[in-house]
Specification:
single chain, about 250 residues, mainly alpha, two-stranded antiparallel sheet, 11 helices, about 75% helix, globular
Amino acid sequence: MIDHVESAASAVAERWGVEASVSPEAITIIVAAVVVLTAVPGVWRIARQASTIIHEMGHVLAALITGRRVSGIKLHSDTSGVTVSRGRAQGPGLLITFLAGYPAPGLLGLGLVWLGISGHSGAALTLYQVVLLLALMLSRNAVGILSCLFAVLSTGLIWWQNDPEIVGYTVVALGVFYALSGVRGALDLIRVHLRPRTRSSGVVAGTDASQAAQAWRVLPIPAAVWLFLFLVISVASAGGVVWMLFA
């Protein structure tokens, strides 16, 4: 048993320490490919599920930090999701939990690219795998389990093969994808709030921004402010990624 644990720890440590540098030409190609692929509606509808996983894990992290009890997450086939947590029905903890979802993909993208260009691609991909595994463990429906399992296996294979060059490319691609996903997610949410049809249907009342506006009566900030905050953080994260890759 001890030998197995030591072998597993050695494998993780070996992959954690992988250092890779990605050439400027490769970075340009990767960025262009990710932008083009996510611009295709059919591709984006599928790829967006990966962003939803990180969105929900943002809620999970915030809930845990603020002392709430997380029951699990659910992902749906329309790429929406929900995080179930227990705690006070009002207060700063609930507010922070609602606010943590939309900035999460952009901030993850920023972190991945920073680690990648700093020569720590192995650490970046390892941490990403940990997040996906936690999401898989917290998934409470079939769509969520299958989505997280696919994400774990597809990137886990690259992590396990441990080719420094491929690991470096993967980390940059993931970073760009999540930075772009953060901006798109914030813009999509703003569009939901602006459409007369969704406003009248009650959909708007269930968004993170609307729930954040009601989460803490001591801080009655309207949903529009939170929408603006989501967009600013996401755009700033994407801008940081662009600056780090091309400056």
